[in-house]
Amino acid sequence: MNFSRIILEWYHVNKRLLPWRKTHDPYLIWLSEIMLQQTRVAQGIPYYLKFVEAFPKVQDLAGAPEEQVLKLWQGLGYYSRARNLHATAKIISEKYNGRFPNTYKELLKLKGIGDYTASAIASICFNLPEAVVDGNVYRVLARYYGVDLPINSSEGILYFKELAKKVMDVTNIRDYNQGIMEFGALQCTPKSPECGICPLRESCVAFATNNIDGLPVKIKKNKVRNRYFNYLVLVDENKQTLLQQRKGSGIWQNLYQFPLLETEKYIEQAEVAQNLGEYITLEEPSEIYLYNENKIVHKLSHQHLHTRFWIITFDSNLENGIQIAELHKYPVPVLIADFIKTFKI
Fold first, then answer.
1. Domain interval for residue 50
2. How far is 318 from 281, CA to CA, in rounded Å?
3. How high is the pLDDT of residue 223?
4. Cα separation of 177 and 196, whole Å?
5. Across-strand partners of 191?
6. Coiled coil where (predicted)?
């Protein structure tokens, strides 16, 4: 059975009509590929369309303020992608005069672009014979060829890259690469794949050995870290509050948040009051109360954020206060965006 021919035939019949499939423009392909890392296609499409409308060309993205980029990205998560996107747009505009490099090796030098993204841009935009290997490709190859090397091990990564190169169709690399990824997304899915109507099942090792659920193999993740976030929502007599910008290299870098008190466990009102002096120089608050009685646990890849929003009101004015009605204009983590949508005072 000719693996690549079957993939191409299946793709021509089953491919989805996605907005970035109407172009070979490397800027638009790059934008879609960065957005679809860690993001489902259905979730990514509205963001892609918003970005293209706001920044039709790479120079438009390069010239935008970071806050605008982060605000448009809000809700997609993994915000380092947005910051790298912005930084690379500036490099493309300044160093490459707005034109993307047209080789895999040059693409790989750009910030936020790894093997997969460089291969995708090189093949889809410039028709170069570079094999893409993403989660969908790992799954298809592991099952079809019966490979039990862990896909997130050094040995596994090298092995699957070589296997992908060996079986790719170099004469129609654009469609083949998109086809094998689409095949993994729609046909050879992580759970309950449609093996009964799969055109590859006659030669699929996993199907023959009844090991569909056992492949691909992945080394278990690190232990999840539990963190306890207490957001201090300060409110003055003029319905103003305070936001702070997160600095450093941790999660949500450069996004805005309410003053944060991080603790070792859940705390109560008295402990919140004891720690207010670190954040404000105003008189004693008139009221402190917990906004969310029900627990909010925001789950990230390696950490769970146990979150409480404490409302703290004052009868005087906050210095550098922001009108509560204006909070929606700031780029914030989705956790805080959800709170802002419901917060009324």
1. 3-214
2. 9
3. 86
4. 24
5. none
6. none
Q: What pTM was estimated for this model as a whole? A: 0.87
> What is the set of active-site residues?
33
Report helix, strand or coil for 312: strand
Burial class from Cβ neighbours inside 10 Å (0-12, 13-18, 19+) for residue 178 reads: buried
Amino acid at residue number 290:
L
263: buried, middle or exposed (CB in 10 Å: 19+, 13-18, 0-12)? Answer: middle
Q: Is the same domain home to 229 and 210? A: no
Strands (E), the chain: 225-235, 240-241, 244-245, 256-257, 260-263, 287-290, 296-299, 303-313, 322-323
Q: Which residues contact 164 (CB under 8 A, 6 or more apart)?
A: 131, 132, 133, 137, 141
pLDDT beneath 70: ranges in the chain: 1, 281-282
CA–CA dist 281, 275 (Å, integer): 12
User: Other C-beta atoms within 10 Å of 115: how many?
Assistant: 17
pLDDT reported for residue 32: 97
Ramachandran angles phi, psi of 61, nearest 5°: -65, -40
Q: Look at residue 220 and tell me if it is in a domain.
A: no
Tokens of 29: 């392909």
Domain boundary among 214, 237, 258: 214
Q: Report the distance separating Cα 255 and Cα 62, nearest Å.
A: 19
Instruction: Specify the number of domains making up the chain.
Output: 2
| DSSP state for residue 179 in the 8-state scheme | H
Q: Distance between CA 206 and CA 212 in Å, rounded?
A: 5
Q: Is residue 56 within 8 Å of residue 49, measured between CB atoms?
A: no
